[in-house]
Design goal:
about 400 residues; alpha/beta; Arginase, Chain A; seven-stranded parallel sheet; 7 strands; about 35% helix; globular; binds zinc ion; histone deacetylase activity; Acetoin utilization protein AcuC; acetoin catabolism
């Protein structure tokens, strides 16, 4: 028997559709659920069916005036302000309802964990981490991550740790809790000098009441799995051990992949799988086994996202899929019908070796200077020694 775990899913979540050629295409979710189903990962799993989050829950992290603007936007058309009606955040019909359902899905996952009904839950439609209190940004209308964390804090959790492994800085979630010492936010992302949203510097440490609870690990473009893993392991486990969250919340964007069209980190599906397994271990060791996981970015819609998030769902369910597992013929045929020119992988692996050299306190690669800077900025604020690799 594995740990009880829940998967939140409803095809209605495909309604969060930014339309046209927009990269945030819901087909990525549809193909993920199909792949996980055909691999048997979801055998016997009954989906938790979300409902729209009520306005008062969304108002935990968004202004009422902004929510009103989202509701009215499809009627107003353009010039609605609040970041809406832009190329990144086009207005679409039922925008408020579709966005509220994403929030409702992550909230349902949080509620099931808080009630003790399950220890782990995953919502691959969630992770809309760029949405700010009064505006949409980076394809995100409402910040489901922040709503769920706020709800957890009001329902029994004293401390929540949020780890964001999307290629972009988790700026909206960081901003929501920047001066709240109860929330530790950690974001690993491509360096802000080279990528949207341009924040996530090492020096963003948290507000005056929460110094050291905002942690940013900006990585150079072209970083690959071994360096990414080295940075993660040099910073994250020590902080979780010290912070002792009641729940671990993770945004698992997969736009870090080498083939992703929107960014320049060079990770693999194997690296993603390894990270999910690490997050699971960290939740078990330092968060009482409580792990709420969401999707996020990821724009290689056919070759990357379905495989990576199938690994995520499988990891949450303790049904880990071997990397060498072939992709099911029916799934491949279905994708090939919809995208006749796509060249699909054959298996659940990119055949990348995920082993890495742990950080040893010296600087020998570009990532090591990032590690040194982050540890020197953050570790003393948690009573940890930035120069001791055992910390
Ligand atoms: Zn992203």
């Amino acid at each position: 028997m594995g740990t009880p775990a829940a998967v939140v899913w409803d095809p209605a979540l495909l309604g969060y559709d930014l339309g046209g050629d927009h990269p945030f295409n819901p087909v990525r979710l549809e193909l993920t659920i199909e792949l996980a189903t055909q691999l048997g990962v979801l055998d016997g799993v009954e989906f938790l069916r979300p409902e729209l989050a009520p306005d008062e829950e969304i108002e935990r992290v968004h202004d009422a005036e902004y929510i009103a603007a989202v509701k009215e936007a499809p009627m107003v058309g353009w010039d609605v302000g609040h970041g809406l009606g832009t190329p990144d955040n086009p207005v679409f019909s039922n925008m408020h309802e579709a966005s509220s359902l994403v929030v409702g899905a992550t909230l349902l996952a949080a509620q099931k964990i808080a009630s003790g009904a399950t220890n782990r839950a995953v919502n691959i439609a969630g992770g809309l981490h760029h949405a700010m209190r009064d505006r949409a940004a980076g394809f995100c209308v409402y910040n489901d991550c922040a709503v769920a964390i706020s709800w957890l804090l009001d329902n029994g959790a004293e401390r929540v740790a949020y780890i964001d492994v999307d290629v972009h800085h988790g700026d909206g979630t960081q901003a929501a809790f920047y001066n709240d010492p109860r929330v530790l936010t950690i974001s690993l992302h491509q360096s802000p000098m080279t990528l949207f949203p341009g924040t996530g510097r090492v020096t963003e440490l948290g507000g005056p009441d929460a110094q050291g609870t905002s942690v940013n690990i900006p990585l150079p473009p072209f970083t690959r799995d071994p360096a990414w893993q080295r940075a993660f392991h040099a910073v994250v486990p020590s902080l979780l051990k010290e912070f002792r969250p009641d729940v671990l919340v993770t945004q698992c964007g997969v736009d870090t992949h080498e083939e992703d069209p929107l960014a320049e980190l060079y990770l693999s599906v194997d690296g993603h799988r390894q990270t999910y397994r690490t997050l699971r271990t960290l939740a078990d060791e330092y968060a009482g086994g409580k792990w709420l996981s969401m999707g996020g970015g990821g724009y290689q819609l056919l070759r990357v996202v379905p495989r990576s998030w199938t690994h995520l769902i499988a990891t949450v369910l303790d049904r880990d899929v071997e990397p060498s597992t072939p992709l099911p013929h029916d799934w491949v045929n279905n994708v090939q019908r919809r995208a006749p020119n796509a060249i699909l992988p054959r298996t659940m692996t990119d055949e990348m070796d995920v082993s890495f050299e742990p950080w040893d306190g010296t600087v020998s690669e570009p990532v090591d200077s990032v590690i040194r800077d982050v540890r020197h900025a953050i570790f003393p604020l948690h009573g940890l020694d930035p120069d001791d690799p055992r910390d």
